[in-house]
């Protein structure tokens, strides 16, 4: 039974890696992933500084860094950043972006759940929209605790993308109806977008947080993983307001109604 479970986890992790490798091509074109205004960039800077402070002279590990959006935010406020991702297409874009900006961000191919980095190597560990994908979050949290220096901080930025509020449900349905009225459903239902959406649903149904990554549940596991001073911050309004300008009205309302949060914890 244990062998079957390990095999299942291995297969799921491979699927997750393949999914994000495919998503790399369009990742930076999507609001909520890339940053599209200096106003939004400032809102992200404010969140990071609120929890992590100025990064001058400090090291940071950005796990599942993707195309390095968060890595650049950390670099902006003074951190010496290492970005880690296991999808080579993401890292290709991350390296190109850093080269274009002339930023000395270091990139490694690696597994966020088993970084292979030395004990106590970083002042800060951060990730955005990673926790909901984890197969074994407790083991991952222990790993992140291990690579932090004593007194170091972890910042998790994530959300519950399963359980939606009534507002999110209504706006989501209205958005779908508007799309149909505009003829957007004329696209093939079995095209690449539909296949990716189904893959996303399949992955979400099998990860640890398949019923939704609620902030309180994540915080409890962080404590079990050795972290202390665990603080849940749901004040994401400034970021959501700037992002809303890049969504249509209904999509902006839907996102603002979602359970999104930052959790800061200390070693």
TrEMBL record:
GO-annotated molecular function: S-adenosylmethionine-dependent methyltransferase activity
Organism superkingdom: Bacteria
Domain Methyltransferase type: 61-156
InterPro entries xref list: Methyltransf_11, Methyltransf_Superfamily, SAM-dependent_MTases_sf
Any Pfam family: Methyltransf_11
Segments traversing the membrane: none
The name this protein goes by in its record: Methyltransferase type 11 domain-containing protein
């Amino acid at each position: 039974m244990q062998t079957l479970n390990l095999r299942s986890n291995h297969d799921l992790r491979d699927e997750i890696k393949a999914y994000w490798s495919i998503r790399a091509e369009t990742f930076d074109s999507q609001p909520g992933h890339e940053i599209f205004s200096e106003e939004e960039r400032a809102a992200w800077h404010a969140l990071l500084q609120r929890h992590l402070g100025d990064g001058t002279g400090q090291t940071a590990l950005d796990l599942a860094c993707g195309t390095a959006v968060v890595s650049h935010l950390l670099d902006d406020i003074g951190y010496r950043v290492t970005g880690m991702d296991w999808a080579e297409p993401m890292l290709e874009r991350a390296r190109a972006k850093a080269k274009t900006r002339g930023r000395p961000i270091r990139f490694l191919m690696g597994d966020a759940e088993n970084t292979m980095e030395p004990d106590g190597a970083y002042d800060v560990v951060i990730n955005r929209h990673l926790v909901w994908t984890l197969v074994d979050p407790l083991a991952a949290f222990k790993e992140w605790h291990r690579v932090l220096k004593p007194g170091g901080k972890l910042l998790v930025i994530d959300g519950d993308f399963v359980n939606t509020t009534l507002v999110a449900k209504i706006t989501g349905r209205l958005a779908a109806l508007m799309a149909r009225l505009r003829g957007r459903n004329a696209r093939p239902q079995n095209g690449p977008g539909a296949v990716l959406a189904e893959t996303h649903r399949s992955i979400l149904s099998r990860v640890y947080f398949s019923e939704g990554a609620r902030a309180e549940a994540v915080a409890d596991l962080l404590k079990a993983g050795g972290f202390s001073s665990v603080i849940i911050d749901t004040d994401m309004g400034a970021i959501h307001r700037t992002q809303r300008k890049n969504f249509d009205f209904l999509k902006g309302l839907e996102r603002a109604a979602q359970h999104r949060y930052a959790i800061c914890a200390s070693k």
